[in-house]
């Protein structure tokens, strides 16, 4: 009888997926030993034999060479079913797996990359999503090391077969380097940071055209790494020598600002389990009844102080991938996105994390695209709905936005002003808010901030009178096909 693949408390029921795989293994255990009786299989038989082999590979380390030979021998679909099951297994159970099962899982992943199995890109994404930001535990650092090692070792194959996978790894490890760089004296991180830096710089230098697919959030991630010499050089070229990247028609960092970041990249920094719980919070929990769910979520995912950096990833995920509940009348009483973000903002204790969270909240305002109203909605609703009970949030956010306009990119300040004004115009014209009167006339808003906002809005009136109501980006909002 095969052992369990997961850590499970005595009162926990066995996961249905693990139970199904175990059942298949027990049923076909005799078929998994040589000599193999290869024969024609029905689709159901084929699927169950794949399930049995997967369970055996994860639970029987001493038999992996035999089992992988059998898998290669029976495959008729390019490993499509097998990789889909591995991916599902990772999404549902990785957090609970025993160390032995995790080691075997990475071994299986390498095998699938070696044969370029159908769906290996999805398998890679699933593993990357299991790396948790701000987590310096041995298991998480081990997974970081394994994944960056796979990306470097399989470089040529990835470039030839699915180069976009490199951008997934780039997004993840740029983000993780910001965390790992904070522990400069931790000997556990020395080799890992070197490998992460090597991988990221190689992607940026050799395949910058692909990197543009990440969109404007590429710039947001890079700015956290300017203190690292290799990335300082990248910044210098982005600002002053864009020709160094050898991408046709790439002339300025402003072009990256005009590329929207696809939602997949935001998902890369949120585990599937975290995503399920966030979506539950945003679709099932009524506003006013959220306290116990928030406490549970924080205890589950944000228990360590180092995990505060994860709040930035969550905010970007909510703003850019979660549909606004206000668009659905039948869930109008559930906890809205702005309320979740307000709670996350109030959970911040570190000033640097709070600043990055605010930047993540307002980032789409700076380079607004007319189709991005969903992305800018949470910030305006949080500012307005925080009056009067939480007016300090309103003042803090409004002050941050106004300072951001002046200082984020001084050379391209006009572009940013147009982006912010276009966002405000879209929020009003699409009925998200009626006006900004509550901000410009409320006594709880700082007089100085009201004055600064008034000047900004007067500029909007001037530009509207000239029939300039939307931002004209320097390039299309879709990066060129490479």
Automatic annotation (TrEMBL):
Top-level taxon in the UniProt lineage: Eukaryota
Gene Ontology CC annotation, any one: cytoplasm
Record domain Integrator complex subunit 3 N-terminal: where: 44-453
Transmembrane segments: none
Endpoints of the signal sequence: none
Family matches, as PANTHER family: INTEGRATOR COMPLEX SUBUNIT 3
Name of this protein: Integrator complex subunit 3 N-terminal domain-containing protein
């Amino acid at each position: 009888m095969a052992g369990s693949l997961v850590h499970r408390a005595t009162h926990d029921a066995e996961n249905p997926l693990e139970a199904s795989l175990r059942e298949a293994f027990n049923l076909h255990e005799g078929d998994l030993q040589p000599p193999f009786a290869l024969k024609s299989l029905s689709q159901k038989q084929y699927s169950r034999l794949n399930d049995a082999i997967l369970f055996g590979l994860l639970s029987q380390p001493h038999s992996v060479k035999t089992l992988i030979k059998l898998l290669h021998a029976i495959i008729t679909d390019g490993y499509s079913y097998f990789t889909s099951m591995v991916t599902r297994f990772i999404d549902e159970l990785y957090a609970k797996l025993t160390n032995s099962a995790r080691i075997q899982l990475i071994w299986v992943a390498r095998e699938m990359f070696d044969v370029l199995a159908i769906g290996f890109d999805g398998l890679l994404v699933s593993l990357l999503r299991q790396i948790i930001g701000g987590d310096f535990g041995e298991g998480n650092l081990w997974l970081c090391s394994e994944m960056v090692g796979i990306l470097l070792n399989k470089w040529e194959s990835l470039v030839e077969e699915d180069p976009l996978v490199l951008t997934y790894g780039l997004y993840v490890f740029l983000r993780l380097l910001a965390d790992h760089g904070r522990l400069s004296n931790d000997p556990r991180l020395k080799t890992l940071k070197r490998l992460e830096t090597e991988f990221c710089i190689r992607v940026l230098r050799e395949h910058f055209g692909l990197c543009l697919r990440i969109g404007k959030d590429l710039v947001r991630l890079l700015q956290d790494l300017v203190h690292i010499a290799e990335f300082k050089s990248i910044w210098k070229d982005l600002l002053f020598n864009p020709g160094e990247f050898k991408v046709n028609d790439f002339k300025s960092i402003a072009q990256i600002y005009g590329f929207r970041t696809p939602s997949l990249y935001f998902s890369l920094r949120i585990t599937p389990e975290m995503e399920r719980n966030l979506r539950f919070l945003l679709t099932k929990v009524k506003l006013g009844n959220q306290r116990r769910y928030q406490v549970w979520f924080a205890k589950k995912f944000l228990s360590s102080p180092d995990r505060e950096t994860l709040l930035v990833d969550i905010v970007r995920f909510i703003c850019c991938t979660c549909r606004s509940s206000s668009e659905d009348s039948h869930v109008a009483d559930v906890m809205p996105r702005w309320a979740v973000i307000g709670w996350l903002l109030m959970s911040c204790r570190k000033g640097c994390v709070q600043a990055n969270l605010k930047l993540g909240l307002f980032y789409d305002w700076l380079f607004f695209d007319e189709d991005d109203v969903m992305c800018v909605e949470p910030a305006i609703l949080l500012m307005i709905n925080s009056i009067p009970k939480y007016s300090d949030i309103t003042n803090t956010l409004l002050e941050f936005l106004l300072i951001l306009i002046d200082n984020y990119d001084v050379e391209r300040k006009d572009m940013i002003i147009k982006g912010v004004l276009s966002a405000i115009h879209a929020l009003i014209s699409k009925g998200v808010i009626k006006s900004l009167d509550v901000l410009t006339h409320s006594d709880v808003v700082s007089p100085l901030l009201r004055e600064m906002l008034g000047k900004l809005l007067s500029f909007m009136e001037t530009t509207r009178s000239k029939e300039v109501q939307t931002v004209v980006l320097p390039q299309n909002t879709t990066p060129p096909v490479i």
